[in-house]
């Protein structure tokens, strides 16, 4: 709920963008555009959407027969412990040398090729963590917010790209052209803010959204622990610490830590140990 509420300003900006687009197309039936856009949010609840996003956005592929033979029994055990039907979830693979896993939409559980090298008990704990995201609805909420923020984010991207092009043209010609290009860029920024004043809240909202993401990770850890996977998940987190994950985080700047989507391994370990 916190993530949905934090998405309201950007969603309002998206609504305005879609309404203005409707006005540009038709003065009489402009309202059809925002209505259709609002209804289109139902697409995130279509199972096929998860598969498309997993393949296109996250670059996840279907597991080979060998990979499926490793993962499927583990997922079935986790689902049995959670009391859910394993056929609701689809396994996917990320080609990566780093141990990683993710939950996408409401059905996809992805693991990296490196994660397949974990001991079976630890890999099962990782799957339990990802299932915890699905059981809590974290991924569906994030996907819904992403969909409704898309028009505003696309508009910002276009404005930034146009501004960069204008600045480079001005710099290429120099002199008066450079000054004019800077004025145009400033004007573009002012128009963007006047059209969607909620954009001014983004610098404040982004750290709060990251905070909700970190809390969601801790919640998924708690679900895994409640299912009996706490000790094995601790082993995975301790392995990540030995590999220097927290060292990299410590070297990151304050802003990077504020916008991090995951808590430190040390914090996750401390929370899990409190539950023992």
In brief:
Residues 70-275 form the Peptidase M48 domain. This protein has 2 domains: 2-45 and 140-195, no CATH class; 50-136 and 207-274, Metalloproteases ("zincins"), catalytic domain (Zincin-like).
Describe this structure in words.
The structure is a single chain. The chain has two domains: 2-45 and 140-195, no CATH class; 50-136 and 207-274, 2-Layer Sandwich (Zincin-like), CATH 3.30.2010.10. The chain has helices spanning 2-6, 8-25, 32-39, 47-56, 65-82, 120-136, 138-173, 176-195, 202-226, 230-242, 245-251, 254-258, 265-274; strands at residues 60-61, 90-94, 101-104, 108-112. Helix content is 70%, strand content 6%. α2 crosses α3, α5 packs across α6 and α6 (120-136) crosses α10 (230-242). The protein is built from 13 helices and four strands. The model has no long low-confidence stretch (mean pLDDT 87). β3 and β4 form a beta hairpin. It has a four-stranded mixed beta sheet with strand order 1-2-4-3, with helices on both faces. With 276 residues, the protein is mainly alpha-helical. It is globular and about 65 Å long. The two termini are 28 Å apart. Pfam families: Peptidase_M48. Residues 70-275 form the Peptidase M48 domain. It is found in: Cell membrane. The chain crosses the membrane at residues 36-57, 150-170, 176-209. Keywords: Cell membrane, Hydrolase, Membrane, Metal-binding, Metalloprotease, Protease, Transmembrane, Transmembrane helix, Zinc.
